[in-house]
Design brief:
The chain is mostly helical. About 80% of the residues lie in helices and about 0% in strands. The chain contains one helix and no strands. It is rod-shaped and about 65 Å long.
Length: about 50
């Protein structure tokens, strides 16, 4: 059952959306950065091994 927000519904739903989107986007960003860092580390290790 959804609560009734009356006149402030647009603002409240926007905050819910932001509250959901920010952690998801941060997770995606962190995953991409970790993948890039791992790739860079492997490249540096390969260069050092030569």
């Amino acid at each position: 059952m959804l609560p009734t927000f009356d006149d402030n519904a647009a603002f409240i739903w926007t905050i819910y959306a932001i509250g959901l989107a920010v952690p998801v986007l941060l997770l995606i960003y962190a995953s991409l950065r970790a993948r890039a860092s791992k790739a860079k580390l492997e490249k540096l290790r390969a260069e050092k091994a030569e």
